[in-house]
Specification:
CATH architecture of the largest domain in chain A: 3-Layer(aba) Sandwich
CATH topology of the largest domain in chain A: Rossmann fold
Strand content of chain A: 5-15%
CATH class of the largest domain in chain A: Alpha Beta
CATH superfamily of the largest domain in chain A: P-loop containing nucleotide triphosphate hydrolases
Distance between the termini of chain A: 35 Å
Oligomer: homodimer
Chain lengths: ~325, ~325
């Protein structure tokens, strides 16, 4: 077993596409192999820069990510793209999408693109995404782009993984800023106004600046608004340069180490939580039981302590906790 | 034991102040008694309306809460006040504060005021506050006011417990809206512009309306801005009427049951998490160990999986998870 993992890990460290793909599947399936593998790979991580890209459906995130990836490739940096699709329960559609997206980079082994679909309800997606990012980091991707639809808390957690968060908006999408998911505004390090050649882009930019003028800068950084037309490759260089500026601002501010310590503290707590919760509430049966018990508690037919004891004892934790 | 708990519970149901006080201490100390007690009391809960009041230090929240409490007492509703003070590591100062605050209601047994101080780092405060709210609900308080300083995620979680959230602001406090903790804006059902007789209140109100015009109403409710001068009892009636309007809006919208089910589902998950986490990371030693291991992981001296295994095995969960 160890030699198989050893072999697998060394192939990943050399950037072997097939081995990386297999490892992502292992991570998605929460297999024990994936843990053994990531343990071996971990000392080789910490070199990648993670950029999170989020925004409503229809804002052109995929094209934007594609163009950013091409930009990095032109500057000889290896790129990993993780597209998180919370709307797709199975990854069939996602994999088809990957094939189409890969076409533009077909002959380029310096870029790796993978979509992930939603699994379970216990934050499994955010955990898997974090692990895939570690894997791509170990595989030598210096720029990792994590793309997700900004619809729920889970997606907000995912982009929070990133060192730099882009929030993508377009003019004329319903009520513009008003359609924005609460919470997205606060996590943006850079706003991207995509499809900036469309009518209404000036108005949207004004609204954004009005909103931003009311918000205090974090750690001395004022989130800028970058105009792009991703389909025509316009504004991409300025965007990439702005990301680099943000990186420099952040890394020179001396807060980096403290932030990384805080990051890992939270990650360890999350990992413990998710492991314990999964063993208590994991699987369809656990989720159904939770729903049932919550309904009984809401109706005052059962007290919450007894509900919790029942859930814990069913999974053998009862005596311990 | 059972008869002691029975006796204690029936005294609480009759609203006995001393018994309620003792129960709060038991909750704060996470004693097993408190759980037995809350189990017995739980079927008698669900009648109270919880209003959360948050805002920066110096916005006059305590006075506002005091005036709101008096308003409810005048309308013959029994009131419970829980003031959460995350800045005080011990409750000494808080208890002194309670004595001063109680003076105005000294002869009134229909009002109960209690402060709580921060405990631990595992969301213990938000759990305790939720339990104290249940207790006061069982003790027949129809209006429960939960007051906290809006400084961190923990405090935001606390006010989220509430059926209605007030965010209190005052003019001339530094940079006004810019000083607002990110995330507070989104949870406000009603904005209270306190000390509205001060210079700059018109400007602040304009800023608030400008900000609100950019945000989509939730469930058809546009958060209004109510001007008060709590020290002079001005605007309190309008505020209380607006809270009642919000309550009616929410309860007639048909979304109440679904929301309560969702609430209890999340609460059960939180309770399970906090029980499990406490047994893994509880106590000073656990926290110190977490900090140590996170530092080792951040420095790539240890992989996160081994760190998690170590934390779990130390607490006897290793084999199980």
């Amino acid at each position: 077993m160890t030699s198989i993992i050893d072999d697998w890990a060394s192939k990943i460290l050399r950037g072997d596409v097939r081995s990386v793909s297999r490892a992502i599947s292992a991570i998605e399936n929460h297999s024990t192999e994936s843990e053994d593998l990531l343990k071996q790979l971990f000392p080789h991580t910490g070199q990648a820069y993670l950029t999170g890209i989020t925004g409503a459906p229809g804002t052109g995130k995929s094209t934007l990510v594609d163009r950013l990836a091409s930009y990095h490739r032109k500057h000889d940096e290896r790129v990993g793209v993780v597209a998180v699709d919370p709307t797709s329960p199975y990854s069939g559609g996602a994999i088809l999408g990957d094939r189409i997206r890969m076409q533009g980079h077909a002959s380029d082994t310096g870029i790796f693109i993978r979509s992930m679909a939603t699994r379970g309800f216990l934050g499994g997606l955010s955990r898997s995404t974090a692990e895939v990012a570690l894997l791509l980091d170990a595989a030598g991707k210096k720029q990792i782009l994590i793309e997700t639809v900004g619809v729920g808390q889970d997606e907000i957690d995912i982009v929070r993984l990133a060192d730099c968060v882009l929030v993508v908006m377009v003019p004329g999408l319903g009520d513009d800023i008003q359609n924005m998911k609460a919470g997205l505004m606060e996590i943006a390090d850079i706003f991207v106004l995509n499809k900036a050649d469309r009518e209404g882009s000036e108005r949207l930019e004004e609204q954004l600046h009005a909103m931003l003028s009311l918000v205090m800068p974090r750690d001395g950084w004022h989130p800028p608004v970058i105009r792009t037309v991703a389909t025509e490759n316009r504004g991409i260089e300025e965007l990439a340069v702005t990301i680099a500026k943000f990186r420099q601002h952040f890394e020179s501010s001396g807060k980096r180490e403290k932030k990384h310590l805080e990051h890992w503290k939270n990650r360890l707590i999350e990992m413990i939580e998710s492991r314990l919760l999964e063993s208590v509430l994991g699987g369809k049966a656990g989720e159904a039981r939770l729903q049932e018990l919550a309904a009984a508690v809401a109706a005052r037919k059962l007290d919450p302590f007894s509900a919790v004891s029942e859930l814990l004892s069913k999974s053998g934790f009862g005596a311990k906790v």
